Amino acid sequence: MGSAGQSLGAFIPAGVTLRLWGDTNDYAGKGLSGGRIVIRPDASATFESDENIIAGNVIGYGATSGEIFISGVVGERCGVRNSGATIVVEGTGDHACEYMTGGVVVILGGVGRNLAAGMSGGTLYLYDPEVTVHDHLSAGVYEIEVLEYEDDLRLHGLLTRYRDETGSKKAQRILTDWRSERMHFVRIETSEYQRVRDEAKGG
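The structure corresponding to this sequence follows.
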C-alpha cells in the first residue's frame, strides 16, 4: 500500500506479480518481460478511479510480454513501443500506443490527442460511447471496426479478469450490461497489421 516511485516493476519476468494498492509514478512496467502488475486505489479511497490519475507517464514502455492492469487513469504515452504485453487502463493522456508494434491495449475511458501515432502492430480496444475516436486518432491508415465474435470473447474474458484483479467499478458496469456496452467498443489496428493477421489465420 502507498505510493511507488519511478519504474515500478521494470523488466519483471514471468512468474512475478506485483500488486499495489495506491498510486505510482512514471515508467511502471517498463520493459515488462512476462510478469504482471496490478494497481488499484487504496481501499480507503473515496474517489472514482475512472476519473482520477493513479499512474504516471509512459506506462508499459517497451514491454515485450506480461500484463498491466490499472484501475484508474494514466498519464501520457501509455503503451509506447509495446511489442507484446496486455495493458488495461481506465483512461490515458496524449500519445497512447505510440510506436506500438504488438500486444493488446484496452482503454476504458477518455484519451488525449495523437492516439496510436506511429503504431505499426498490435490491437487497441477503445471504449468510445461518445464516438470521438476520430478526434483523437493520429494521422495514418487504420482499420476501425466494431467487435467481431473473437474480439467479443477475448475482451469479455480480459475485462472479467481485470475486474476481479482491480475491483474496477467501470469494468463491472460494462460487464453487467455487456450485450449493450460491447457496441461501444471499437478495435483499432493498422491496415497492414490486420492484413497480415488475417492471412496468418487463413482469412
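Residues 85 and 96 are 14 Å apart (CA to CA).
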